[in-house]
Amino acid sequence: MSLSSPVGVCGTINLSPDIDLLEDLISHEAACAEKGPTTLYRPEYFSPVVKEGMFGKSGQEPFLRASSEAIDLVAKKVLKWGVKTDFHTLLTDLSKIRNKVAVETHTPQAERFGLRRNEMHVPFSYPFLILSGQYILAGLDVSQNVFPILSDAAEREFSKEEIFNKPFQYTCQDSPFSSFTLELLSKEVIREKGLNTVRWNRGLGGFAADGLVNPYVYLGFCENGDERYELFLRNTRKHLLGDAMRNSFQQKISLKESWKEIVQKEKEKDRKELATKFKDFKQQKHLVEGDGYHGIKLAKAIHNLEVEFSKPDPDDGQILPKTHFLIFSLRHQVLGRLYATSKYVTWLSRITGEDLDDTMDRAIKNSRWIVMHQDIFLLEDTLKECERLFRDVFNWNHSKGTEELKEKMAPLIYLLTHSHRDSRGTAAMNEWLEWGIYRALGFDMLALSTRMIDLNAFSNPYGKFLEIYKESFSLVPIST
Question: Which CATH number fits the domain 2-121+379-477, given the four candidates 1.10.357.10, 1.10.3290.20, 3.30.70.1130, 1.10.3720.10?
């Protein structure tokens, strides 16, 4: 297969037929013909630095075996049930496989693989990914997408200095299903808006959001908070002890097991109540932006960037001042409405009066992005939309051609990526789902082993992702 070099990790890849790879694929199919659906799957996109974090201490082979198992599972279920396939159960099955291989290979933080984010985090915890280190090329991709948009908007609608001297915002609908917003704020404006301080104290009082949350309830979802949460339940919901005793007698289980069941039920009720409260709080307006939901979230990102990136510039030993912060927010259609998906935050170091291109060049070289994942309480609705997109894939028929099939698959993969449903392992599971669906529809995927579509989705607005997605692989009919 004649392949042009990818642009970084996440760049566009042009594919054209290649006899050697096609022969390998045919040989693979012949060897696996009696095993049912299976797919050649050998991702090589992880650097040696991070391979242990992904594959544990046993190397790549156990992960590859689990991948084949997962892809087979998806293909067989889809072949059997088609549009009636239980989408959510399928995702759960993939989570179990990812968790199992992580545990068996002693992968760091194995317990987080396959664990839903809404089971691990509460509404005001913001999982984020810093696009540096092994993800630095993905961060560069974001920069190469975002900074030109900022530069073009500035030159078209404002003077070069105007965007740096007052708050600047630019919104664009980049597809029928998605939009993005750019916002540039100076350090002075950030202080005025109260975004220089994280105004959230986990229910302990002092800020607007704290009144929504009983700190002991919140503690029940935090690391090492289980015992204090149980003590809180015993002291404030004393009827639960009687419920535990009755439950123990009726189910003929130990009192300890019965109490554990009740604690889990209470925690789930508290989780839903917290989500509802914060969802309502998100719509509230405040005199100081930093007191509101979006303000608290943004202040956390700015704080993380300040803490993580405060070292001197390696070239001249100076600490470049962070004069402005740039926020890039993505929205995508969910259940007929545009929902916030991922938010990206970085900084710029602006020297007054310098050419705009020089500022942008310095930003691309020195700035690092934080990706803030979709709010946890939007996860359920987003997965419902993913289920709709999943079923829409099966409305495709062969007469429409593979281009349309890719166009139906692309929004599913994109939205699954941005929902970031599991604490760890989502990228692999999305790939397994993708490969398995194509397999069931009669195709194998032919792509570079360095293709990592999860990072493509994270580093591009949907309009550009769709172009990259369609060019990142070829669909090869499976011989029968």
Answer: 1.10.3290.20
Question: Does residue 105 contact residue 63 with C-beta atoms inside 8 Å?
Answer: yes
The packing angle between helices 48-55 and 61-81, to 10°, is 60
In this model, does residue 39 exceed pLDDT 60? no
Average the pLDDT over 277-297 and give the result.
Answer: 92
Per-residue pLDDT reduced to its tens digit, 328-358: 999 999 999 999 999 999 999 998 888 888 9
Angle at 381 between CA 379 and CA 382, to 5 degrees: 60
Q: What pLDDT shows up at residue 417?
A: 95
Lowest mean pLDDT among 27-36, 127-136, 189-198, 317-326: 27-36
Please report, for the chain, the start and end positions of each structural domain, with discontinuous segments joined by +: 2-121+379-477, 128-199+290-372, 208-282
Spatial neighbors of 385 by CB under 8 A, at least 6 apart, are 333, 334, 335, 415
How far, in Å, CA of 460 to CA of 144, rounded?
Answer: 10
3-state secondary structure 50-116: HHHHHHHHHCCHHHHHHHHHHHHHHHHHHHHHHHHCCHHHHHHHHHHHHHHHHHHCCCCCHHHECCE
